[in-house]
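Appendix B, example 12.
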Amino acid sequence: MNRKKRKIAQSFQSWLLLLVVIALLATVAFLWVFQTQLSINNTDQLLRLNIQDVQQDVLDAADDQLLTMTDLIIQEIDAYGYETDLPLQTFAWKYGLSEINLVNEDGIIYASTTPAFIDFDMSSGAQSAEFLCLLEGEKQFVQTYQPISYNEAISRKYGGVALEDGGFIQVGYDAISFQKAINHQITRAAQNRHVGENGGLIIVNEDWVIISDRAGNIGSNLADAGIVFSEETTVRGEYFQAEVYGEPCYCMYEKAEGYYILAYMPQSEVVLSRNVSVSITTAMEIIVFVALFILIYILVRRLIVKNLQKINCSLAKITEGDLDETVDVRSHEEFADLSDDINTTVGTLKKYIADAEARIDAELVLAKTIQLSALPSVFPPFPDRKEFDISAAMVTAKEVGGDFYDFYFLGHELLGFLVADVSGKGIPAAMFMMTSKTVIKANAERRAEVHDVFTRA
């Protein structure tokens, strides 16, 4: 069963639409992945910046607090007098300090709230040696909370101030004393901070107790907020996922001065920016792809399909027998070449047809001559017989045909004649006529009855 073929415009439209849809889907998928990663990277950066800000606030608060305590101790010592036995332990208790050390110009501790530290050379350890800058012109120096050189099992935060008469004073906090001193400042550090629209920061101490939180859960354990992590499994400064107050969030933490600073941002807020970006970009891409689809389809239809239709129309006339039709599509070089090739082919075909017709005509003329030569053509045929006259002629509908006549004497007194029409025209009828004429004459010369002659023939 013959099926109607699709037009090239329809096939091109279908394939172009398919390719455009595939390209659009691929672009949207790539954009989705890219925007997702971009949103996560932006969230990572936002969490990191907020943590760094709070971390710096904590460090600044700790440093300022420690230097303030150092200045107060110097005032106490100045009022008491350096030449007497200084009640350093009393000063330490008064100001909530863990340690007070006096260091001479050689970097040796000569007075301390910890007797074991007396005569300790500050240059003997990497941590303690950092304070020797106070002997080289620096006025103040503060360290982060870290293990001390004398005993790495002990962690302290130290601050030092250079003395006018030489040497310097060093004061230190342990974790408990340090946190008591700056808790009131740390409490405010995260209360008014937002990460994005609905994110925030949480500051907890080493016991995982919340010190500062914009949600107002100070004093609660961090696990009550839904966050559980450990330094062994969660890398500092890298985001991880957790549920904060029942909402899935991206989180990140850092540690500063014995505090854990944790920033969080809801995942719904992170993907919102991605979804908005992907939606807007996808809408723009759809407009662009539709415009491209229409433009390409119109161009192809105008430049190719219409020209092909013109060529096909001319070819249809040629195949119907109009060999005088000329293909004339010359909008582009390719179509001009195609038109010339078709016209040349048709011209060659016309020449072949003309040559074939001439050859056939010549052969038919020859066949007609042969056919006519087989018929009686001399008149009068029997000039010595005066009792009758006979004349005949044959005019064929085509060059040769099946009509024929014949006459002859069957003995001296009997004349037989024949007029016949063979069914059909052309060469086959002529060949049958020649055979029939010979067979009938052969049977007639036997002097049989007419019906017997035809029956035998």
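The longest helix spans residues 8-80. The radius of gyration is 59 Å.
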